[in-house]
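Why Hemerythrin family protein? Reviewers of the renewal asked for a concrete example.
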Amino acid sequence: MILTLTRPIACWQKEYETGHAFIDEQHQSLFEIVNTLHEAVINREEVDTLQRLMDGFARHTVDHFQQEEALMLMVHYPDYARHKQTHDLLLSKMNSLLQKLRAQHVEMTVDITQFISEWLTHHIKGEDRKMTQFLQQIQELPISCN
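Here is what the prediction returned.
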């Protein structure tokens, strides 16, 4: 098989930085996985390879969401329920897609990697930025001795 060099579909940009180093690092890892998956789709890799890559993306996403959610609970983030709902919605879509891929009822396409890339950038610039702004605000609050 001839490998086609593709442009990344998910390009990390400074505007995606949340100011929280650990979260930004995880987001960058998600971008790398999406790009690897996208390249595999473009190169028409075997179904098993695409499933393995999608499984890896799903596992990494679940781990990332769990860590974000634990952080939000720890600091009593007021928009936790709404933020978690956006996570749950994506996970539900990913689980459905994974089941269809395993049953070979759907083909992995660039539309899927495009959706994932757009979802990530929208979520990071919206929900995650709000969350990290809250984290920065509570770190700046004076500690009460009462």
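The CA atoms of residues 30 and 109 lie 18 Å apart. This is the kind of structural detail the renewal will allow us to pursue systematically.
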